[in-house]
Design goal:
Layout lengths: L1 H34 L6 E15 L2 E15 L22 H29 L1 E4 L5 E5 L3 E2 L10 E6 L2 E2 L5 H4 L10 E7 L5 E6 L2 E2 L1 H4 L7 E5 L7 H10 L5 E7 L2 E7 L16 E2 L3 E6 L4 H5 L6 E5 L2 E2 L3 H11 L4 E7 L2 E8 L2 E5 L2 E5 L2 E4 L2 E4 L3 H20 L17 H35 L7 H14 L5 H37 L24
Antiparallel strand pairs: 1-2, 3-23, 4-11, 4-14, 5-10, 6-7, 6-8, 8-9, 11-12, 12-13, 15-16, 15-22, 16-17, 16-18, 18-19, 20-21
Helix pairs in contact: 1-2, 1-9, 2-8, 2-9, 2-10, 8-9, 9-11
Length: 534
């Protein structure tokens, strides 16, 4: 019962705060429009069919059936010469200063709301990766694991050049291949099929390896910019890099810079996610009831130090060792609240996962987190810098710069709501509130873009009128509004399509199969909005 109430509370939290971000934006427009005496036709709480309404001082205030945000009808923000009400009544044009102030009020309201919520994060704190200013490289494959020549991610590799494959996964097979490897013959079986296929596969050299990156290198900066939150922040900087990636690394002989043009990683939706492996501290996440992990006494937040005497390098290393144990006893050393604790008889159990049998201990894996208290300005600057970097990567091809970030990697309302759910259910209300702050700031930044139909476009129209003492010709304004409205709607439909395609991964996180043990790292979140999580 309590578990059900907790889920309901989190669902209410997600939809309430997501809608509140939109409501605050529209409220900002409303208040300044009333102050500047512009004509306000209607202010709605929610969308869809009207449930209730009243008129105060000529403004219709209504409550609509879908309680997600709201809208305000301001005909005089229309950039044409003759703004009209919904019944066709012609209105006088509002002054350009009034229109500009009203337009900017929405984004300003979102920024103020974000700062208000940021005060709570400053007070309560939010969990983030433990501070780390460098990353140790563990492995760099000479060949990039690209799915091509008819090979797909659903294929299990059985043979390589007639010999038994060392692994059914391409990512493991390529680790055995040299950079100058020629075409190879693969015998594969596609998931769900019995037929064995023969594929002539041409390996592609990994540019990271060709550039000189090697195991043992310690990465300290990406494109000249250091990082403070370890691998997570470093990988984000690499993914959003344009043109070449420049890695500043430390070796025994000193510091050097390694430059390379990244390839699209097929396991990261074609983004420039690195193929090299780095050491990432691992902590236990959710512990499944009745699982071997719970029976052994392991707890959420335990930092994994060693397994059978070997240092835990990352989540994949730990999963491989648990799988290879085949249920035999394992020795595990963890750190808990500064104390090192050893477990000498941890045994994985055989469980069915996704139709396949494997050995699991029934515990989620995550990065060790610390409770940080960033002040509101630090939170604002962090979101601004992430947004700037993301938009820079997105528009790079327009200015003839190379980038692997595409519009399909962005998210619309569906993806944003999924991401808020993910943060609330994995990081609690602190994590959810932290992401709401990101959404509120991002909504302000997005709406300030100088594009018609956005608030930034209305500000540009007003500025043109102030400078040239006249509005844009109605014909031009109508054409711009229509064209950009079509582009914006098309863009939202496009990113929503990809949000929906990612939904199965999102649903698998919340509704795993009954027999599934949560042992792998938390499912990768859906693509973030203009920025990633805070």
């Amino acid at each position: 019962m309590l578990h059900t109430l907790d889920i309901i509370a989190k669902v209410v939290f997600v939809f309430f705060f997501f809608g509140l971000c939109i409501f605050i934006h529209e409220l900002g427009h409303l208040l300044v429009a009333l102050w500047r005496k512009l004509y306000v036709e209607r202010f709605s709480i929610g969308f869809g069919k009207k449930l209730w309404g009243t008129t105060i001082n000529g403004v219709e205030y209504i409550v609509s059936v879908l309680p997600f945000g709201g809208y305000v009808a301001l005909p005089q923000l229309n950039p044409t010469d003759e703004p009209k009400t919904s019944d066709g009544t012609v209105l006088p044009s509002g002054s350009p200063v009034s229109r500009a102030l009203t337009a900017v009020a929405g984004p300003v309201a979102n920024v103020l709301f974000g700062f208000f919520l940021a005060l709570f994060i400053w007070w309560l704190g939010s969990y983030e990766p433990a501070p780390a200013h460098d990353c140790l490289v563990l492995g760099v494959p000479a060949v990039a694991p690209l799915y091509q020549d008819g090979l797909t991610i659903k294929d299990e590799i059985l043979e390589v050049n007639g010999a038994t494959s060392p692994s059914p996964f391409l990512e493991e097979v390529v680790k055995t291949l040299p950079a100058d490897s020629g075409p190879i013959a693969l015998a594969v079986r596609r998931r769900g099929e019995r037929e064995i296929r023969e594929i002539a596969y041409t390996p592609v050299p990994n540019p990271e390896y060709l550039a000189g990156l090697r195991p043992g290198d310690r990465i300290v900066a990406v494109d000249g910019e250091g990082f403070s939150r370890g691998a997570k922040q470093m990988l984000e900087q690499i993914v959003l890099a344009t043109d070449e990636v420049a890695l500043d690394v430390l070796r025994d002989e000193g510091e050097l810079t390694i430059r390379y043009s990244p390839l699209g990683n097929p396991l990261a939706e074609g983004l420039g996610y690195p193929f090299f492996e780095v050491k990432v501290p691992v902590a236990l996440g959710n512990i499944q009831l009745g699982s071997p992990a719970e029976r052994a006494g392991l707890k959420r937040g335990d930092i994994l130090l060693e397994i059978d005497g070997d240092e835990v390098e990352n989540a994949g290393f730990f999963i491989d060792r648990v799988t290879a144990s085949k249920g035999q006893p394992m020795r595990l050393k963890v750190e808990r609240e500064g104390q090192v604790i050893e477990f000498s008889d941890l045994r994985a159990e055989e469980m069915e996962i996704g139709g396949e049998v494997g050995f699991r201990i029934g515990a989620g894996l995550d990065e060790p987190l610390v409770l940080a208290h960033p002040n509101p300005w630090e939170q604002f600057v962090d979101v601004f810098q992430r947004t700037k970097r993301t938009l820079g990567s997105l528009v790079a091809p327009i200015v003839q710069r190379r980038s692997l970030v595409r519009p399909r990697h962005m998210s619309g309302p569906v993806g944003i709501i999924q991401m808020i759910f993910y943060k609330v259910f994995t990081d609690g209300y602190r994590g959810g509130l932290s992401f709401i702050i990101l959404v509120s700031f991002s909504l302000a930044f997005f709406n300030l873009l100088p594009l018609p139909v956005l608030d930034g476009g209305h500000i540009v129209y007003a500025f043109i009128e102030i400078v040239f003492r006249r509005k844009l010709p109605t014909r031009v304004a109508n054409w711009l509004q229509t064209a950009f409205a079509v582009l914006l709607i098309s863009f939202m439909a496009y990113v929503t399509f990809y949000d929906v395609r990612r939904s199965p991964r999102f649903l698998r996180f919340f509704f795993p199969q009954k027999s599934e043990a949560v042992e792998e790292p938390a499912a990768a979140p859906p693509a973030a909005p203009a920025t990633e999580e805070n």
